Amino acid sequence: MTRVRWFAKYRLVLALVAVVSLIQAVDQGQAARPRRIAVFGSSVANGSGDEFGKEGYTGLLREMMAARGWEVLNQSRGGDTTITMKPRFAPEGAPDPRTRYLLPVNPGYVVIGLSLANEGIWEAKTKEDKDAIYKQYADGIKGFVDKSRQNNIVPIVALVYPRMVYTPVEYEYVRRMNVQQSSGDAPTVNFLGALDDGAGRYTRGFDFDDKHPNAAGHREFLYAFVPTLFEALEKGKPTPTKPAAAKGFARIAGGAAPLTFTPQDTMHPFAIGFMVRAQADGTVAAVSGSTLAAKSEMKKLDRGRGAAVEFESIALSAERTFTAAIGVQNGKWIYKSASGTSVPSGINADTQWHHIVLSHYTARGETLFFVDGKLGGKVAERLEPTRFVLGGPGSAEGAAAPKQADYKDLFVFRAALNEDEAAALSQGKVLQASLEIYAPLVDSQFRADSTVENRAQSLSVLKVGAGRITHVDEKSSQTQQ
């Protein structure tokens, strides 16, 4: 062997060793990241409004994650903004023993939970002032996301939430912020989709005061967390995006439950969205579970020094089973509610693709039905879903599916979507806040009892059931037409 060849092989071996070492270092770094979640925010994150004094959604998240082997710490402080929280990221010099810092507790993950209300969006009087507050908040949250990543901490952003004094002006900023942050590259949790009363305020019975939810409201916030989000992040599951190259869709012909998703943990607010093309009457999707009864109770909490607060609290309990359905009736898209009430959209089912969103606010007891990004109608009902079906009625008892229909881009969220979010989804955006299932439905094949690709940052599965499901390329479909 010549000296030149020997050096060439030597360099190759060194390069391979370097690559293997880098891979091992990355793996060890991921393994070394502690299963410790720090909730880093202001008063709501700190548990204010929880009349039981159990730290609100942070305490509830601690209970939920403890069973999965995770630790949850409360590093929040009431009244904080993106400005006042900065010094608490890490101490400069000797730490103040009375201050809850982030870095010293060595979290592997951080839930950033700040309020657009604390930032001063309502108090700002002019459009210019409100725009400046909006930018300050957005930039501040991004700053925390970037700084967390620089310190090997995985950031999760808890999105903006209601306030009782908001007017339509502030509500527009709140909705815009929700879409902006849900479309970003950090995992997010959609609190607005849990307790929005439809005007940016807390749903009555789930509020403690102007700025804070009561214990029942904090629980609805908890339900907006995807339970396996942290495990998915631990495994390195990336931000959900649409497939870059794959073109196609699933064609379903027959079967009561061709594709099903069964939540493993309690779900309250939800939204299901998908693209569909069907030219005959029948059921294209179904949701089943239990309706909920609401019982109201007036409570009083003495905060000391004569500062007693009286507030309403609503308790929810299971009532009866239900199955609701989305489909085509008399050639038009329609939603049939849990009580059997029909909510027609007035939009024809034809040869074109249509975008459907069913959005349910459990707390306020209302379901919104969107077709092609527009509100088709709404109905009063309060639901706890336990099963989602795409491509059929879910059982032989419901109205059968069309003989054939095409589907793509299935989304299931653990939060309701408002009209802005439904429109964004219909325009092709991937909203990731509280997203549990995102199935593009471009899989090369759909075998019975298998699972479908899920790009959401969760470990949940969409299962293939009975029925004939085939992959169809866009080009071949256009040729057939």
Protein model, in words:
By secondary structure, the chain is of the alpha+beta class. It folds into two domains: 31-224, Rossmann fold, CATH 3.40.50.1110; 249-474, Jelly Rolls. The chain is built from eleven helices and 21 strands. It has helices at 3-32, 43-46, 56-66, 116-119, 127-150, 168-182, 192-195, 215-223, 229-234, 419-426, 474-480, and strands at 36-41, 71-74, 109-113, 154-158, 188-189, 249-253, 259-261, 270-278, 282-302, 308-329, 332-336, 342-348, 354-361, 366-371, 374-380, 383-390, 405-413, 435-439, 451-452, 462-464, 468-472. The strands form three sheets. Strands 6, 8, 13, 14, 15, 17, 18 and 21 form an eight-stranded antiparallel beta sheet that branches. An eight-stranded antiparallel beta sheet has the order 12-11-10-9-16-7-20-19, with no helix packed on it. A five-stranded parallel beta sheet has the order 2-1-3-4-5, with helices on both faces. A hairpin with a 2-residue loop joins strand 14 and strand 15. The chain is globular and about 70 Å long. The model is unreliable at 1-31 (pLDDT under 50).
Which properties best describe this structure?
11 helices, 8-stranded antiparallel beta sheet, 481 residues, globular, Rossmann fold, alpha+beta, single chain, 2 domains, Jelly Rolls, 21 strands
